[in-house]
Amino acid sequence: MAVASDLHFYVDAARCIGCNACVQACSECDSHKGQSMIQLDLIDALRSPQTAPVVCMHCDSPTCAEVCPADAIKRTEDGVVLSARKPRCIACNNCVLACPFGVPKMNTEMGLMMKCDMCYDRTSVGKKPMCASVCPSQALFYGTREEIERLRPRSQAIQTFRFGRQTITTRVRMLVPREAPARLSVTDGFGDPGIGHEVDEDVFTNIFVGRESA
Amino acid sequence: MQRGVLKPTVYAFVATAVLGALIVLGSRNLAHFDAALVAYTFAILFATFGLTYRYVMWLQRPPTRLYWRRGWRLLFARGLRLRRLGRGVRRVAADMVANRFIFKRGRVRGLTHLCIMWGTLLAAAITFPLVFGWLHFAPVPGDLSLYRVVVFGFPTFTFPIESLGAFILFHGLVWASFLVIIGVMLAMRRRMREGGAATLQRFAEDFLPLFLLFAVSVTGLMLTASYTWMKGAGYDFIAILHAITVIATFLWLPFGKLFHIFQRPAQLGVGLYKDLGHDGPHAACRRCGAAFTSLAHVHDLIAVTAELGYDYRVEDPAAPAIAALGATTPPAVEHYQWICPPCRRASLALAQGRLWAGVRGGDTLAVAAHPPSARPPTPRYANPGRAEGPLGDEDAHNFHP
């Protein structure tokens, strides 16, 4: 079985509310029970509630697979980059450090790299990936192009990313404004802080003062 | 012939010729060579050619070649030899002998692999020297109750034929086949019951080796049963059947999953590289400033990705922004490899969020002012309990904060 060619994975990190449902759901997956492959980070834990959910983007030319000395990472014909093949992975960390999206996770105890395989056990039989099936804000969405166009009329889905001089195209798509360029330069985000309000007043004092004055 | 093909071919010919010469030498000009086993010998010679060819081909891949060279160089590097040796011995004992890392993936999986591995290794240790004529048993002149073990043509120790030791020794392949059959049964059980395994497994890659090992073990046991309890009934037929299964396994060795037997020791070189990287100078992320791996690893990956045709050099559009953060200007990014994985993930979301700022809804997406003279902090897992899960302490090992 193969993943249906009209079904796509859409990521809209700006919609993420950091609820962790994807993380919990991911760890239910049959192929890596009890371990979550999704990467959900607080960008600036002290100053911003912004979270970044990152799944494997399933690159057309996966750097992780190319730098693997053991030839352990395989890309299926339907474009899904699978987790490391267990007999081959020698836990060298090359993929962890070379993936431009920072996706693979290394388990040193098991001597094994594990990464999101777009729930291949589910998607190859027509089901949604675990994370997309539970995401309440649809930051992670799995469906057809028509569905996403209807749901997000102001968005366009891009598959091209720039990392300095390197351009990477992916199977997984990211939603950006319709008027934005069709490729995202990731390095543009280096200097930005997390999105959020500055808490420059003491909230509790204000409440107290407010009540007194009333 | 291209150089990429010529080199492995030459190495494969040389390795096969060396093994052939050792067979002639070890069997004393084929005097102790058992002609009945000639088909096995040629299958092993073919496997040697195929394995060497694939191994050398594999070593030509840029990342593999790099680790191969680094591994050997570090092994023979000056200083800290005892400490390195100690770590190496521990690694061999834990990973190679006891399969600790597979037990961490699951107790039954560990047991499965241990049974198959030690069963096949034991069988190979017994069969190969016999097939090559390197080992044979000769009666001791004057005392027919004793056997002498002759290795490479040199007589060694003697032992009584009718003894428990002799029984265990002569039935070595029976014990090996018991181990293999137990392992294969456990592996098949997992492959038939686990949904995750069911999706990813392939017949040629995952089932064929199990079928071959099972067939070799069962036909081998049938031979023992035939001559022990059935007065040799059907022995010739079973012997041919057994030979076919064994030869098929050897011929399959260079192509399929069993090639990992020869790849896996590379883990030791990688371990050495990581150990020394851990002790040595570390690379700091050029976004958040945290150490995330060894300096050598970053330099090596920059070289390897360039050789593979990737160009992750960064012309630093953010240099002014980074420079504006502090009085002491952090080094320019220069290459994407200098960014730690958490900062890569954060940068993806931040770059996307930057495009949405002002489009989606005013204040909530406005970029908050950053305090001057501070680097952006290292992103943290939103759910350390679950997101890291059993993968938790790997970040400590791998430096990722």
Question: What can you tell me about this protein's structure?
Answer:
The complex is a heterodimer of chains A (214) and B (401). Chain A is α/β, with parallel strands linked by helices and 214 residues long. Chain A is 20% helix and 21% strand. Chain A has helices spanning 21-26, 63-66, 94-98, 120-123, 130-134, 145-151, 203-213, and strands at residues 8-11, 39-42, 51-54, 105-107, 112-114, 140-143, 155-163, 166-177, 183-185. Chain A starts with 7 loop residues before the first strand and ends with a helix. Chain B folds into two domains: 3-267, Fumarate Reductase Cytochrome B subunit (Up-down Bundle); 283-398, no CATH class. Chain B contains 18 helices and six strands. Chain B has helices spanning 3-26, 38-59, 62-75, 81-97, 100-105, 107-131, 164-170, 172-193, 195-200, 203-229, 235-252, 260-263, 266-279, 295-307, 319-323, 341-356, 384-388, 394-398; strands at residues 135-140, 143-151, 154-160, 282-284, 291-294, 380-381. In chain B, strand 2 and strand 3 (154-160) form a beta hairpin. In chain B, helix 1 runs antiparallel to helix 2, helix 3 (62-75) crosses helix 13 and helix 10 packs antiparallel against helix 11 (235-252). The two termini of chain B are 49 Å apart. Classes of the chains: A alpha/beta (214), B mainly alpha (401). At the A-B interface, strand 2, strand 3, helix 3, strand 4 and strand 8 of A face helix 3, helix 5, helix 9, helix 13 and helix 14 of B.
